[in-house]
Amino acid sequence: MDANAIFTRVKEHTPKILGSEGFSKFAVLIPLVEKDDGINVLFEVRSHSLKRQPGEICFPGGRLDDQDQTEQDAAIRETTEELGINRTDISEVHPLDYLVSPFGMIVYPYAGFLGRTDHIEPNPSEVEEVFMVPLKFFMETEPEIHRVNMGIEPEENFPYELIVGGRNYNWRSGKIDEYFYTYENKVIWGLTAKIISHFTAIIQDV
């Protein structure tokens, strides 16, 4: 391969997160609802029958499917499926910063408005209940932030002989900031809390 061929390949390459082809990709929607008391944020409580994070509070969303042309399509599709609403009930959908999890997952958050909520029929296999929190609460409330320490544990047959320092190699440890909001009897935490905190920061000066 000559230099021109190399430069052509590099020039035509679209940058992405290195190794992201092996990541699980999810999209979620922050559903905003205009009510008499102002704008509210709709949340779901995950069904207790789910294997993953049963009973936890989240936004509508899920894994990208082959049928989804974009991450936004996935966020909208999952919202309609989980809340039992139509695509036309959702408007002004716009992207926020995406999040790369240390556990091999990329989350693409969006914010959008729900035109009406009186005909919401949550899918019972996924959603236990829905509830709303005034956006003003998040604008006026700082999340509690607690850190989770992450350690490094190489697999049993790791080739220590190939690295300088061998078994005494100085691995870098990491920390994850976990966000928490408590509203009445609801605890909103983890990625959901981090996403709403990020959204609040974007609109803080509006």
Shape: globular
Structural class, by secondary structure, is alpha+beta
Kindly, what is the distance between the CA atoms of the first and last residues, rounded to a whole number of angstroms?
Answer: 54 Å
Note the beta-strand portion: 35-45%
**What is the tally of beta strands?**
11
List the uncertain runs. none
CATH class call: Alpha Beta
* Average pLDDT rating: 92
Could you characterize the architecture of this molecule?
This protein is of the alpha+beta class and 206 residues long. It has a single domain, classed as Nucleoside Triphosphate Pyrophosphohydrolase, CATH 3.90.79.10. Helix content is 21%, strand content 36%. It is built from 4 helices and 11 strands; from the N terminus they run H-E-E-E-E-H-E-E-E-E-H-E-E-E-H. The chain has helices at residues 3-12, 71-83, 135-140, 190-203, and strands spanning 24-35, 38-46, 57-58, 61-63, 90-95, 99-101, 105-114, 127-134, 144-150, 174-183, 186-189. Strands 1, 2, 3, 4, 5, 6, 7 and 8 form an 8-stranded mixed sheet that branches. Strands 9-10-11 form a 3-stranded antiparallel sheet. The mean pLDDT is 92. Pfam families: NUDIX.
Which descriptors apply to this entry?
206 residues, Nucleoside Triphosphate Pyrophosphohydrolase, manganese, eight-stranded mixed sheet, single chain, alpha+beta, three-stranded antiparallel sheet, 8-oxo-dGTP pyrophosphatase MutT, NUDIX family, metal-binding
